[in-house]
Amino acid sequence: MPPYRQSSRPQLIDSSSGDPPASGTDMNLEKRQHLRFDKAFPVRIESILFGETSCIARNVSAGGVFVETRDPLPLRSHVRVCFLTPDESGEVVALGQVKNHYFINFNEGGNPQSLTGMAIRFSGFEEEGERHLRACLDRFRVLH
Fold first, then answer.
1. Which among 83, 122, 128, 136 counts the fewest CB atoms within 10 Å?
2. Residues 57-81: b if buried by 16+ CB within 10 A, e if exposed
3. Could you give all domains of the chain from N- to C-terminal order, each with its CATH number?
4. Helix (H) or strand (E) holding 121
5. Measured between alpha carbons, how far is 2 from 39 in angstroms, rounded to an integer?
6. Count of alpha carbons within 13 Å of 13, Cβ hemisphere only?
7. Read out DSSP for 33-66?
């Protein structure tokens, strides 16, 4: 598993020009519905078809999670996402589906970096997972 990296947030880049999008463009509009927690922590992704893999969660909300992984699962893959809440107060097991793949370029300490990952939209939770996650997000309230 790669080491945790805390870095400045990656910047969206307009693929046609290589520049950050102009202010007011659709790429800058916030469409998120759920409170989210922006911190790197380990998660386990399980798939009946593709097995089990360890990843780094970068951004989790009650609606889904972005995970950093070198080998994203195919789009529409059904998965179980297993992790401790960021404050380790409970375990979350979420059911979901891979919705997007990402390749992100960013600059860290003057050096170009990149990461790959996938966005997983949650469709449900096992046992007390949703309650644990919502309680943790309510305590942290860091991003929206």
1. 128
2. bbbbbbbbbbbbbeebbeeebbbbb
3. 38-138 (2.40.10.220)
4. strand 111-125
5. 15
6. 14
7. -S-EE---EEEEEEETTTEEEEEEEEEEETTEEE
132 Cβ partners below 8 Å, 6+ apart? 85, 89, 90, 91, 92
Q: 111-135 burial, b if ≥16 CB within 10 A, otherwise e?
A: eeeebebbbbebeebeeebbebbbe
Contact 98, 72 (CB under 8 A): yes
- The two structure tokens encoding residue 25: 């463009």
Q: For the chain, 144 residues long, give each residue's pLDDT as a single digit of tens.
A: 444 344 444 433 333 344 444 444 444 444 545 555 677 889 999 999 999 999 999 888 888 999 999 999 999 999 999 988 766 777 889 999 999 999 999 999 999 999 999 999 999 988 777 777 777 777 665 444
